[in-house]
TrEMBL record:
Keyword Ribosomal protein among record annotations: no
Short name of any one Pfam family annotated for the protein: ABC_tran
Entry GO CC: membrane
CDD domains: ABC_cobalt_CbiO_domain1 (cd03225)
Chain ranges of the ABC transporter domain: 5-245
InterPro entries: AAA+_ATPase, ABC_transporter-like_ATP-bd, ABC_transpr_CbiO/EcfA_su, P-loop_NTPase
Superkingdom in the source lineage: Bacteria
Organism: Streptomyces marincola
Matches recorded under PROSITE patterns: ABC_TRANSPORTER_2
A Gene Ontology molecular function term of the record: transmembrane transporter activity
Name the UniProt record assigns to this protein: Iron ABC transporter ATP-binding protein
Length: 263
């Protein structure tokens, strides 16, 4: 199993309902995927499978060449970087931005110790610099704006040098400036040949960073289409996915979508 992710016929059933239903999907090295779909479609469930925090009811999940169920997830998890609001909720509000990123190198959400490796501190500073957080290194995490918090989390997710980076709605709750800033930074990361494979969940095509290569469209737990962004992200496919007539447009390396006026 050489793929970064390989889901074969995967279903997750809770209370008699399939949250994801017979999903087959693979992510190869170097690919940058967007998972797009309406509320409740199963996007976060897919990310939870990909991060090894959820096991399928049926089907097989391969992550970084290992089969879920046949590998110690505690060996696997350090190889996966994740940024989500659920994870952000577990971070200490009292730690500084630098501490928040640095503790990731030690597999902790809290617990500042006096002695950290100088190399780790340099890395944490470099990631924060790349995400435009240089001026806020000593600010307490709890005092950050939503956009600053998201950028700190992404720096934190990169800290363990992951082979797979999972981003759950990184632009949710950001104002226009914050969104555009984050989209540009994610675009730069996506185009970095040394960056890990990436999977980003979003509700909005406007949030797709330049350089993302593939899209998976999901609705009611079923994959409607998955493949290269230029072929999958059409008006017809997106309309089907969100259940209303939509017009998708590509302008350069960005996307927009609009509902058709009511007749
Ligand atoms: N443990 C659970 N038991 C029962 N239903 C669940 C459970 N976890 C999630 N669900 C349901 O599964 C469906 C898919 O949830 P999921 O969070 O994957 O959707 P999503 O596409 O990420 O949605 P959103 O865009 O609203 O965040 C939702 O209808 C949700 O209510």
């Amino acid at each position: 199993m050489s793929d970064v992710l390989e889901l074969v016929d995967v279903s997750v059933v809770r209370e008699g309902r399939s949250l994801v239903d017979k999903v087959s999907w693979s992510v190869a090295e170097g690919e940058r995927w967007i998972i797009l779909g309406p509320n409740g479609a199963g996007k976060t469930t897919l990310l939870n499978l990909a991060s090894s925090y959820l096991f399928p009811t049926s089907g097989t999940v391969g992550i970084l060449g290992e089969k879920l169920g046949a590998v110690d997830v505690f060996d696997l998890r350090p190889r996966i970087g994740m940024a989500s609001s659920a994870l952000a909720g577990k971070l200490s509000a009292r730690q500084t931005v630098l501490q928040t990123v640095l503790t990731a190198a030690y597999g902790m959400t809290a617990g500042w110790q006096e002695e950290y490796d100088e190399v780790d501190e340099r890395r944490a500073r470099a990631f924060l610099d790349r995400l435009g957080m240089n001026a806020l290194l000593d600010r307490k995490f709890g005092t950050l704006s939503e956009g600053e918090r998201k950028r700190t989390q992404i720096a934190r997710a990169l800290m363990t040098d992951p082979e797979l980076l999972l981003l759950d709605e990184p632009a949710a709750g950001l104002d226009l400036g914050g969104r555009e800033d984050l989209v540009r930074r994610l675009g730069r990361l996506a185009r970095d040949a040394y960056a890990p494979a990436m999977v980003m969940v979003t509700h909005h095509v406007e949030e797709i960073p330049p350089g993302f290569t593939h899209v998976l469209l999901i609705r009611q737990g079923k994959v409607l289409a998955a493949g290269p962004i230029g072929t999958v992200l059409t008006s017809a496919e997106l309309s089907h996915c969100f259940g209303l007539p939509l017009v998708v447009e590509r302008q350069g390396d960005r996307w927009t979508a609009q509902g058709l006026p009511l007749g």
